[in-house]
Amino acid sequence: TDLSHIRNFSIVAHIDHGKSTLADRLIQDTNTVADRDMKAQLLDSMDIERERGITIKANTVRIEYKADDGEDYVLNLIDTPGHVDFAYEVSRSMRAVEGSLLVVDSTQGVEAQTLANVYQAIDADHEIVPVLNKIDLPASECDRVAEQIEDVIGIDATDAIQVSAKTGVGIHETLEAIVTKLPAPEGNRDAPLKAMLVDSWYDPYLGVVVLVRVIDGEMRVKDRVKFMSNGTIHQIDRLGVFRPDMENIDVLGPGEIGFITASIKQVRDTRVGDTITSEKKGAEEALDGFKPSQPVVFCGLFPVDSAQFEDLRDAIDKLALNDASFSFEMETSAALGFGFRCGFLGLLHLEVIRDRIEREYDIELITTAPSVIYHVYMRDGTKIDLHNPADMPDVTHVDHIEEPRIKATILVPDDYLGDVLKLCQERRGVQLDLTYAGSRAMTVYDLPLNEVVFDFYDRLKSVTKGYASFDYQLTGYQTDNLVKMSVLVNEEPVDALSMMVHRDRAEMRGRAMVEKLKDLIPRHMFKIPIQAAIGGKVIARETLSALRKDVTAKCYGGDATRKRKLLDKQKAGKKKMRQFGKVDIPQEAFISALKMD
Ligand code: GDP
Ligand code: MG
């Protein structure tokens, strides 16, 4: 296809504003997929994505469209992940296209992820076409929302297209706008090959599939190509496009988006954002801005049933094959046994992986408190990247500790603003901005990431009855008064419960933790002190009093079967316990204690 007849675009939207439904419509109305093969949300492939209504990996489809000008166009849609955790993937896929449809639910208006995603599109120099969706609903307010787009985002929305992705109104206008408003890609077929590695994933039949956007030159089957970040050479054994099923073609030229396979074993060997060129007479310089995505949130994953450790290893290995941004290493915990310390792009990423292990591999997990990476500067001048509180060195050797901070943008209806400000303040936030757009307030906070990884989303949702939207980006590191808090049960430290906290919040956290544990740990035949401590200093303490009588005592000795039943029940209960020194701590205690509130 010649460049003037190609349009590459993505759709940016806040979750639930109708991105996937609109994509389905565009695919359907251009007969890209026969009606009988059409199923809802064609682009969201994984079950968990469907259930949660989020798109995790970028997906792509090539649409052929005969426009009103009588010409045939190729439209390539890259569906970007809609969540903050995947911001880096979003920014890469944005660079692979020239324009964006900005979808805003006309019954809701601009939300935090609308902003985050549209700023990415603006950064990538996109032409942006605003689309007001859900106009079939009585609550639709196109004028108000168009005005809000102009006020808050600062782009012209006078020609915003009014659409119902549900009924199909405005879909033709949207296709025409893609052709007439978005620019054609630029590129040179005769220049050395330069293609961007947009995404990659593991396919059980084909091995690693690589999504590419060709900038200059051409790619053909049998070509030997070089991945510029690490110099590896691969021979292309299959090449094609998505409609949306994979279809082989002979050549991918400038401006085109498609896939290659090249006998690549693991997703880890391909890096999103990398430049692919030819082995011989390749491009001299790579495309700019390549940086591998880094995990920012860490936690331990342990099987509830320690016999399932090997199954867990297997599950993690398999998931990692398809997700290069997820890191792991083995970890042993005195309390929880064998497990893995895992690194994630963010909390949603953590949740997705944990859910997949539990569901797809049927392994019940204990997740330890999520931690961020602290920079620990030692008195001897060395620096440690600490992502497991258990590895915290002796404080007497520590000079100072830095923690990561984020810039968080929160949009919320006026009525709930007070509660949101209070929550941010409690979490050591510093307000940077507060503005209004209609009856919604937008506030920007500088917050420590560690205060957000616990339960910030959940708290935000509950104090605003679900009306707030939230987005963040990492800004950098800052020194603060941070300490490791340990939890001791019967004088023994329980490693899985130790955490890094701000000194000013330590007492409160410690108190909450010991009170919770007191309710969660069953009474034993002896007294059990439960303590929270910083270094050697106890900051909170509870005592679990001793159990006076044998459980069977209340059976009055008479009924043998009843006595047996009770003992069996106790034994079954025991199985789910972890022996800790002389104390048995039930699994439930860890799970609940690690949920902060
Ligand atoms: P996404 O999260 O942006 O991909 O949003 P979805 O496409 O999954 O849509 C979210 C919800 O809104 C789904 O229940 C859709 O059926 C619904 N929806 C999408 N577009 C429209 C529309 O034009 N009108 C109405 N009434 N509902 C819509
Ligand atoms: Mg979706």
Automatic annotation (TrEMBL):
Recorded GO MF terms: GTP binding; GTPase activity; guanosine tetraphosphate binding; ribosome binding; translation elongation factor activity
CDD domains attached to this UniProt entry: EF4_II (cd03699), EF4_III (cd16260), LepA (cd01890), lepA_C (cd03709)
Residues noted as binding GTP in the record, renumbered to the chain: D16, H17, G18, K19, S20, T21, N133, K134, I135, D136
EC class of the enzyme, as a word: hydrolase
EC number assigned by the record: 3.6.5.n1
Residue stretches making up the Tr-type G domain: 4-186
SMART domains: EFG_C
Transmembrane parts of this sequence: none
Catalytic activity: GTP + H2O = GDP + phosphate + H(+)
GO biological process, one term: positive regulation of translation
Keywords: Cell membrane, GTP-binding, Hydrolase, Membrane, Nucleotide-binding, Protein biosynthesis
Matching InterPro entries: EF-4, EFG_III/V, EFG_V-like, EFTu-like_2, G_TR_CS, LepA_C_sf, LepA_CTD, LepA_IV
Location of the protein in the cell: Cell membrane
This protein's GO CC annotations: plasma membrane
Membrane topology designation: Peripheral membrane protein
Reported function: Required for accurate and efficient protein synthesis under certain stress conditions. May act as a fidelity factor of the translation reaction, by catalyzing a one-codon backward translocation of tRNAs on improperly translocated ribosomes. Back-translocation proceeds from a post-translocation (POST) complex to a pre-translocation (PRE) complex, thus giving elongation factor G a second chance to translocate the tRNAs correctly. Binds to ribosomes in a GTP-dependent manner.
Similarity comment text for this entry: Belongs to the GTP-binding elongation factor family. LepA subfamily.
Protein name from the UniProt record: Elongation factor 4
Phylogenetic placement of the source organism: Bacteria, Pseudomonadati, Pseudomonadota, Alphaproteobacteria, Rhodobacterales
